[in-house]
């Protein structure tokens, strides 16, 4: 628990003094609410970090709170105070009434902003980075979702959940050799374990953010994480295209190229970048950003609108076609869980994905020799719904299994490899690839490593209750857990505004599970038909007394296949059980949604008849 003593206004660390209102955003480990600080009747934002489901270990959480408390810069969100409420850490901070740039683009500027607006936003962000870097901090998660806007156009960078101190020694320093960030925004050196990285990683993310603000999305944002990873490492850096991006100035194109240089030592510092002529002519955001906000609904309504839009897209199955999905799935299997790690083969597989306009942003580069660092790394990759994922050496302990995330995650940073992997929808035991050439090492890595996958490729772990522990805000009290929520549903005490987004989340998770099971069954079926060895292996697996088992000719590869088959069989039966449970839940939830809709219509009718 701490208070920011720098501020003239002090905020209490008593939860009763805060009335949580609408949800205004959520991330990997936290939900953010607009709230009223009752003693002063002041609007604040309260970030409720679920300590149980949080990606970070307690040290990381403490570090975020400490970093936030020490921050004193007009372009950085500083916290008023923080304290623990049950298993949540509440961080009280100024409310940024217009939300993040990402929200704004999604709701009103899907093609991105005009250059003069981007210039203002980037300049303010850069000032924040100059401050952070000069105080020894790497932000590690610079992106439009973490650039917040206030009424009047004030721009502030937020979310120090993954920031690191460059002056740290020992464990903390070592942790910088692991992966933290969000895949599309991650610098190539961050993706390569062992190499280490420094504040220049923020400059890369800043360059990607510039492209994001220019196009409305980050480069590669629609590809699966493994593809993003490969493209970041293998391809030439993304850039503003000469033809397609005609509307942008040479100067803007130049700063993007300066930031997106693979060799981190050749990237400019934030301080140097700020002196670039592009930023010389920047208008104050009060004059530019402010105009973007005219006529928009309040932030919480926009957030709700976005949630409904996402749910509607899901309902329409706005997914890739079946063929693309299968292709993507096979790429994923090769990329993450296969053991034949011929890099040329991986490149060929990756290239099978349809080229589209986004690919024109990058040119094929020569194979980067540094990729072999990645190949030999024992990596754990974890993808979430917004294409984020975690890579690192995953501790294979019971503690880890207990800590495995059981609640859905709708976004989230790449986690430190040495953190408890606490934010996964699923904790499957899919063997992760080791890309190295050495067979022994390969096999050891294969056995040691585990992969956690979420989103389109989600695999759920044993007995995972997908609706458990999703925090929900009831408006006046602390967020409630989903088990409470289910009870509340039963007694119909929850208002529709809370019920509907939650039900949409559940619906989404159920669909993901359904897809996954289909994919697993298909892949088993294909293996069954195409690989004679499968039958032999299956019989070996079924009949442990089979003499064949003792044949000395069984190669390592066969053993690995055998293990994979039995692993898949276990998973399929587990997932089938989960699917049945999920189907039942789904049916109940559909019923609840229709009841809620009916109620809402009834209410509307009564209100209308009252008015007339
Ligand atoms: N002070 C604030 N005022 C208004 N909205 C905010 C504020 N802080 C955060 N938000 C909203 O909540 C979202 C999530 O916040 P934040 O990024 O801090 O959470 P997180 O769990 O750490 O996210 P991430 O997934 O990026 O790690 C932001 O993208 C933003 O839209």
From TrEMBL:
Keywords: ATP-binding, Coiled coil, Kinase, Nucleotide-binding, Transferase. Residues 572-599 form a coiled coil. Residues 385-405 are annotated as: Disordered. One of its GO terms (molecular function) is ATP binding. SMART domains: S_TKc. InterPro entries: Kinase-like_dom_sf, Prot_kinase_dom, Protein_kinase_ATP_BS, STRAD_A/B-like. Residues 18-279 form the Protein kinase domain. Residues 396-405 have a biased composition (Basic and acidic residues). ATP binds at residue 47. Gene3D superfamilies: Phosphorylase Kinase, domain 1 (3.30.200.20), Transferase(Phosphotransferase) domain 1 (1.10.510.10). It comes from the Eukaryota. Belongs to the protein kinase superfamily. STE Ser/Thr protein kinase family. STE20 subfamily. This is Kinase. It comes from Zostera marina (Eelgrass).
